[in-house]
TrEMBL record, chain A:
Residues 18-274 form the Transketolase N-terminal domain. It comes from Candidatus Methanoperedens nitratireducens. GO terms for biological process: organic acid metabolic process; sulfur compound biosynthetic process. The keyword ATP-binding does not apply. CDD domains: TPP_TK (cd02012). One of its GO terms (molecular function) is 1-deoxy-D-xylulose-5-phosphate synthase activity. Keywords: Transferase. The keyword Lyase does not apply. Its EC number is 2.2.1.7. This is 1-deoxy-D-xylulose-5-phosphate synthase. InterPro entries: THDP-binding (IPR029061), Transketolase_N (IPR005474). The gene is dxs_4.
UniProtKB/TrEMBL annotation, chain B:
Belongs to the transketolase family. It is an enzyme of class 2 (transferase). Residues 1-163 form the Transketolase-like pyrimidine-binding domain. One of its GO terms (biological process) is organic acid metabolic process. The keyword Transferase applies. Keywords: Thiamine pyrophosphate, Transferase. Its EC number is 2.2.1.7. This is 1-deoxy-D-xylulose-5-phosphate synthase. The keyword Nucleus does not apply. One of its GO terms (molecular function) is 1-deoxy-D-xylulose-5-phosphate synthase activity.
Length: 278, 313
């Protein structure tokens, strides 16, 4: 299957599981679908039959609220059972709106509180250096998350310790829960901030899978430096009325008109939708 | 206690290559030997405590055994959410070592006092808490907590605490220690104030009050047996700690007694009464100012014994 086709299917899954649960973050998940597809299908060295391999690459979803995107990817990769997706946020299920490491195969770190992933990832990267391992550590951050001071503590640490096995990808959709990042607490000049912290920096269209792959294929960007890929994305990408509208950060479509539009734009037919909700 | 901890940690690190020391720019000179002999395993993360805890959790996920170290409020309160999510929620094998228990940094003021650390650490699931009373116990406890898989908060003093134990002391995690037998009243204390408690007990003996003293070095999990036995046998318990009363070890002990003791007992907690200590001087002077000195213990015992006698009559 083409990667674009996979991305399309992942969006369908995210929509269905969130709609069924009446919970979850659809728009922030849609924002990073292509990033996750690129990572899990072309970049990460993870063997589903040996998830604890000490040489595996690590992926940390620091923006834990995009869990529905990650669960859908893990199902697509056969790391978790696809039918588990039906239990998202429901009684007796293990898939919450934020991922938990101890109960879900393929989840390295429990996240949900922002600003934790880059420190955790720096620790794994440091262990890799001490033990002469070749693995890489990928951390997906949201842009709003980069307002947390702890992110910058980790950024300074990683460059000081030359953790060139650490890669941050920022889902830079320029929107946070209540509005535009530029209006709430600007992160600009974002590229320069990372550079000033001693990171190698690249920028990419975060919905162009082949470009993302191209930008993650050769690492680090600069010798002896951690790398950050700033992925320019659209929050809510895939459902027009959600795109770039802050209100949809944590909201599930609930009227007929919204659902009709969503189904049409995601390429879900009504029958498929009703079938999935059973 | 600090040096005893560091030399034990050095010894453990010598035998176990997974053991690391992470410091947030605290520990001048005292860590030099560790640093020069295990350069890869000593990381001064800088003045960035939250990051230190996250890094430690990441290291632990790769099999490392990180001992994180700095002054108590900075490693418990500043980092609380990192400890909660990265360490406790994920049951990470990270040791949180807070130096400067209670009021020992007496001249540095309330920013450096540790008076609510027990309360905030004990409320975290998966967390265990060890609070040694003297340098020997600090050393022995360091060996013990290195063997525990999972989060431990280790609350230590600094330097110059009087000795309570000799070199033959055997530390058992989770088991309180009866340091002195007695029948009229039991004093249960934790940390270096165990020494003041012992001194108070000796004076009380001279006044004819038979005083039992228990060192509760493991605050979580609590040794319920030794507490309930003391409640049964002495009928009066006083807890002593260098910590705020709210949420301290005394409140844990009170819960055990209220829920599980069948004996009718008299009970009193000694600790800081919901205050910051904005007072300067020696450690001893701060304890006196805060109402937790030896004399305060003696006074409270006498008061409690009177109540107990009234009850009997």
């Amino acid at each position: 299957m083409e990667l674009e086709e996979i991305a399309k299917n992942i969006r369908k899954k995210i929509f269905l599981m969130s709609y069924r649960a009446g919970s979850g973050h659809i728009a922030p998940s849609f924002s990073c679908v292509e990033i996750l597809v690129a990572l899990y299908f072309k970049i990460l060295n993870i063997d589903k039959n040996n998830l604890n391999d000490e040489n595996r690459d690590r992926f940390i979803l620091s923006k834990g609220h995009a869990s529905s995107a990650l669960y859908s990817i893990l199902a697509k990769k056969d790391i978790i059972e696809e039918k588990l997706l039906d239990t998202f946020c429901q009684k007796d299920g293990i898939l919450g709106a934020h991922p938990e490491a101890h109960s879900i195969p393929g989840i390295e770190v429990s996240t949900g509180s922002l600003g934790h992933g880059l420190s955790f990832g720096s620790g794994i990267a440091l262990a890799g250096k001490i033990d002469n391992k070749n693995y890489k550590v990928f951390v997906l951050l949201s842009d709003g998350e980069c307002q947390e001071g702890s992110v910058w503590e980790a950024a300074a640490f990683a460059s000081h310790h030359k953790l060139d096995n650490l890669v941050a990808v920022v889902d830079y959709n320029m929107l946070q829960s209540l509005g535009k990042t530029n209006e709430i607490l600007s992160l600009e000049p974002f590229n320069d901030r990372w550079k000033a912290f001693g990171w190698g920096v690249k920028e990419v269209d975060g919905h162009n899978i082949s470009k993302i792959i191209e930008n993650l294929a050769s690492l680090p960007y600069t010798n002896n430096k951690p790398s950050v890929l700033i992925a320019h994305t659209v929050k809510g990408k895939g459902i027009s009325f959600m795109e770039n509208v802050p209100l949809w950060h944590y909201r599930i479509p609930n009227n007929r008109e919204e659902i009709e539009i969503a189904l049409k734009e995601l390429g879900l037919d009504r029958k498929e939708f009703e079938e999935a909700l059973k | 206690m600090r040096n005893a901890y560091i030399s034990a940690l050095y010894d453990i690190a010598k035998r176990n290559k997974q053991v690391m020391s992470l410091n947030a720019d605290i520990g001048a000179i005292v860590f030099d030997k560790f640093k020069s002999d295990f350069p890869d395993r000593f990381v001064n993360v800088g003045v960035a405590e939250q990051n230190m805890i996250g890094i430690a959790a990441g290291l632990a996920s790769c099999g490392k055994i990180p001992f994180t170290y700095t002054i108590t409020p900075f490693i418990t309160a500043r980092t609380y959410e990192q400890i909660r999510v990265d360490v406790c929620l994920q049951n990470s094998n990270v040791k949180i070592v807070g130096v400067g228990a209670g009021l020992v940094y007496s001249t540095l003021g309330p920013t450096h006092h540790a008076i609510e650390d027990i309360a905030i650490m004990k409320t975290l699931p998966n967390m265990k808490i060890v609070s040694p009373a003297d340098p020997i116990e600090s050393k022995m406890a360091t060996y013990a907590i290195a063997e525990i898989k999972g989060p431990v908060y280790f609350r230590i003093g600094t330097a110059g605490e009087p000795k309570i134990y000799d070199e033959n002391y055997e530390f058992t995690f989770g088991k309180g220690v009866e340091l002195k037998h007695g029948d009229d009243v039991t004093l249960i204390a934790t940390g270096s104030i165990v020494y003041d408690t012992l001194m108070a007990a000796k004076e009380l003996e001279l006044k004819g009050i038979s005083t039992r003293v228990i060192n509760i070095h493991t605050i979580k999990p609590l040794d319920k047996d030794i507490i309930l036995k003391a409640a049964r046998e002495t009928g009066a318990i006083i807890t002593i700690e260098e910590h705020n009363l709210e949420g301290g070890v005394g409140s844990s002990i009170a819960s055990v007694i209220l829920e599980e003791s069948e004996s009718q007992i008299k009970f009193k907690r000694i600790g800081l009464n919901d205050i910051f200590c904005s007072y300067y001087g020696t450690h001893q002077e701060l304890k006196t100012h805060s109402g937790i000195a030896k004399e305060d213990i003696i006074r409270e015992v006498i008061n409690l014994i009177k109540l107990k006698d009234k009850q009997v009559k």
